[in-house]
């Protein structure tokens, strides 16, 4: 029903407007009791799906990636579709509008999306107020810096978000890999990244019950840079890696070059990222001798895509663009395939 009726209708309209319309619709349906129907249709409760990863118990290994519910507005309702965990954000210390619209584009021929949202969010404190009401959903907090904050002062932005969210999320994700905030990816370089992660790890160690800290990396890193990531994880003792964020590459697309050029800058997600994301997961897993957990994300549009990520070394997987193109049924399909694997 989703792919035959609902998706063709939604895809007739502007992607960002559809995103907010869908949020309103899901919230309304959940408020009138349809959430329980969603759970019956999409949720798969089986103890064999539980995963113990970086000290947390995930009810199943399929999560929603950051960027979909940036401001923690819908994490409870979205969990009704069967996700084992929801990652909110990226949040920044201060509210920011993000980049000018139009900034979200579909590449239908490629089952892909290009976005240059630019960390648009209402600020971490606003998200915290919504997360106070959470009782059951396992939530990750994806944190970043404000656009106006120079890289030399980035640590303070990440620390602010870390402190604000600490009592309200189950794990943290350090996002230095979005291509849509100027110079942000420079923080992936070995020296500044090591310094940032050590600062967060030290602050975390001061807590009575430290939370897992993960690093989200770009798919555009070279093998040499990926080896640096392995070394950084080992040296800083963070808890894991999310591989991968969106790509700035435009290679191998079926969409006409003129249309892609007209869209311009932004991070590409979806099916074209499937292979590269899996390559990065396998490289990190093999070269580190599975030294740390990896959450696999990027181009998961089928159960086979998810199983491939897990086989490559991912302990958990996340959806974003695949959720938009394939619908909520994909979550149950993946969990069923994991049980039958």
Automatic annotation (TrEMBL):
Cell compartment(s), UniProt: Cell membrane; Membrane
Family: Belongs to the dihydroorotate dehydrogenase family. Type 2 subfamily.
Reactions the enzyme catalyzes: (S)-dihydroorotate + a quinone = orotate + a quinol
Protein name (Swiss-Prot/TrEMBL): Dihydroorotate dehydrogenase (quinone)
Main subcellular location: membrane
GO MF: dihydroorotate dehydrogenase (quinone) activity
The protein's annotated pathway: Pyrimidine metabolism; UMP biosynthesis via de novo pathway; orotate from (S)-dihydroorotate (quinone route): step 1/1
Dihydroorotate dehydrogenase catalytic domain location: 49-338
GO biological process, any: 'de novo' pyrimidine nucleobase biosynthetic process
Keyword Cell membrane: yes
PROSITE patterns reported for this sequence: DHODEHASE_2
Oligomer status and interactors: Monomer.
Swiss-Prot/TrEMBL cofactor(s): FMN
Biological role stated in the UniProt entry: Catalyzes the conversion of dihydroorotate to orotate with quinone as electron acceptor.
Topology of the protein relative to the lipid bilayer: Peripheral membrane protein
């Amino acid at each position: 029903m989703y792919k035959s009726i609902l998706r063709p209708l939604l895809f007739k309209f502007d992607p960002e407007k559809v995103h907010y319309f869908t949020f309103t619709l899901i919230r309304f349906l959940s408020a009138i009791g349809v959430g329980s129907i969603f759970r019956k249709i999409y949720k798969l409760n089986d103890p064999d799906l539980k995963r113990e990863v970086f000290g947390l118990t995930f009810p199943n290994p399929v999560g929603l990636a950051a960027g979909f519910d940036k401001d923690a507005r819908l994490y409870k309702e979205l969990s009704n579709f069967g996700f084992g965990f929801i990652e909110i954000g990226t949040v920044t210390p201060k509210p920011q509008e993000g980049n000018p619209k139009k900034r979200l584009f579909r590449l239908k021929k490629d089952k892909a999306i290009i976005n240059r949202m630019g960390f648009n969010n209402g600020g971490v404190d606003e998200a915290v107020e919504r997360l106070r009401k959470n009782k059951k959903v396992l939530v990750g907090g994806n944190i970043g810096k404000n656009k106006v904050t120079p890289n030399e002062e980035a640590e303070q932005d990440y620390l602010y978000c870390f402190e604000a969210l600490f009592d309200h999320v189950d794990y943290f994700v350090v996002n230095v890999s979005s291509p849509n905030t100027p110079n942000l990816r420079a923080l992936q370089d070995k020296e500044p990244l090591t310094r940032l992660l050590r600062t967060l790890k030290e602050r975390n160690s001061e807590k009575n019950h430290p939370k897992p800290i993960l690093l989200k990396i770009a798919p555009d890193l070279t093998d040499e840079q990926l080896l640096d990531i392995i070394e950084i994880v080992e040296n800083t003792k963070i808890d894991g890696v999310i591989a991968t964020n969106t790509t700035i590459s435009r290679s191998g697309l079926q969409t006409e070059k003129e249309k892609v050029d007209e869209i311009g800058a932004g991070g590409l997600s979806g099916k074209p990222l499937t292979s590269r994301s899996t390559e990065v997961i396998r490289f990190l897993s093999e070269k580190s001798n599975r030294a740390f957990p990896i959450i696999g994300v990027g181009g998961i549009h089928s159960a086979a895509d998810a199983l491939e990520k897990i086989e490559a070394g991912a302990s958990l997987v996340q959806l974003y663009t695949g959720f938009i193109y394939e619908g909520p049924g994909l979550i149950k399909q993946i969990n069923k395939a994991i049980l039958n694997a």
